[in-house]
Write a structure and sequence with these properties.
The protein has one domain: Methylamine Dehydrogenase, Chain H (7 Propeller). The protein is about 0% helix and about 45% strand. Strand 25 and strand 26 form a beta hairpin.
């Protein structure tokens, strides 16, 4: 494994495949991502992180595509799920079914919604019928209540294994979703957060958060091989702080949002080339960015908080050109407390606004609709079938 992965390039600026096996080059400054703590007992939920680049550009082009079917929203304060039927005029069904404490992420696989609960250290499995009926499947799955794992985020591999980061135990839980058996946990970096699967590898953000003094150490991204369930690389984010969230752009690059330390280090983004598991480039974003969603046109949307009397904030940038469309100086104003973002195939983007209890729908740079959901909406998933 390498300590500092910056992609070497040839004379034309092309990234070498397998660059992580070559001598690394000095990395650009990268301070990133956002972390919001939600504690109950000794648990902490790391939330938010988002991205940005430099420049300016017109609104993203519109690509016609199918209308999404439903949006599922988990309400952290009321521990319930809300369903928005996006094909039936946005009909909202609130508090349909109860979930665990501090639902922090949801993963849809094989007709079931897997709700990862940070404070109750468990996972609910909820079936979603073709008629949009929700039903509980079995008892909650123990994700480490005795150890106090504080599970955070999850992603499913092509062979049906769910990888879940554990902030307090610095490892990843692996669940075989076909029979709900557990593989041995995989050690990663300090205070892991977001998880994504790209090809045969699992990428895990390590925030470097110290729960004793609430400081941030060196962040990194662990790379796990699905085949061996072992860490095969550790990508050094450089000088960036608090890498929390990730998404993949249309070219296959991984955008990592570093929120910063909320004091004197602001948000940045690091872009990873999976071909070499190395840093392609880094960009300053500013603010305290959080969750990121990239639509099919390659436009990144980043939830960026907005609390108290301020409106919620969403940043936006072009992943191909690096042009900032909406940043800290000209954010897209949404309802208060923008926490998560989710992109649909019609390029609509949904923003969960925790403080105002609603979800806003954005087209390009405008809020087109707002749905009242439940108390403290945070994670969302768009299900299109």
């Amino acid at each position: 494994m390498t300590d500092r992965n910056v992609c070497p390039t040839d004379s034309d600026g092309n990234i070498y495949v397998g660059a992580h096996d070559r001598a690394p080059l000095p990395t650009n400054k990268g301070e990133m991502m956002k972390n919001i703590l939600h504690s109950s007992v000794l648990l902490t939920v790391l939330i938010m992180g988002l991205l940005s680049f430099i420049g300016c550009e017109d609104d993203d082009p519109v690509s016609p595509s199918p209308t999404p079917r439903v949006l599922i929203v988990a309400n952290q304060n009321s521990s319930t799920l809300t369903l928005i039927d996006l094909k039936e005029g946005g009909a909202v069904s609130r508090d349909l079914i109860g979930v665990g404490l501090v639902a922090n992420d949801m993963v849809f696989y094989n007709g079931n919604i897997h709700v990862i609960n940070s404070s109750s250290h468990d996972m609910n499995v909820i079936s979603l019928s073709l008629d949009n009926e929700l039903d509980r499947v079995g008892d909650p799955v123990d994700l480490g209540i005795a150890e106090g794992t504080n599970p955070q985020y999850g992603a499913v591999s092509v062979d049906g294994k769910l990888y879940i980061s554990n902030a307090l135990t610095n490892d990843v839980t692996v669940i075989n979703l076909e029979d709900m058996t557990l593989d041995p946990r995989i050690p990663v970096g300090v205070a892991p957060a977001d998880v994504i699967v790209v090809g045969d590898n699992v990428y895990v953000c390590n925030t470097g958060f110290n729960f004793d003094d609430y400081s941030f150490g060196m962040g990194s991204v662990s790379v796990i091989s699905v085949g061996s369930n072992t860490v095969i690389d550790e990508i050094d984010i450089g000088m960036g702080k608090n890498p929390q969230f990730m998404d993949v752009d249309p070219s296959g690059r991984i955008h990592v949002i570093c929120t910063g330390n909320y004091v004197d280090v602001m948000g940045e983004v690091a872009v990873i080339a999976p071909s070499g598991n190395c840093i392609d480039t880094t960009f300053s974003l500013g603010g305290n960015p959080g969750d990121i969603a990239i639509n099919s046109n390659g436009i990144a949307y980043v939830a960026a908080g907005g609390w108290g009397s301020d409106p919620g904030k969403v940043f936006r940038y072009n992943t191909a050109s690096g042009a900032i469309l909406n940043g800290p100086d000209n954010p897209i104003d949404v309802s208060t407390g923008a926490m998560r973002v989710a992109a649909a195939t019609d390029n609509s983007v949904y923003v969960s606004c925790m403080m105002s209890g609603c979800v806003d729908r954005i087209d390009a740079d405008m809020v087109m609709e707002s749905y009242v959901v439940g108390d403290g909406p945070v994670p969302m998933i768009v299900v299109e079938r």
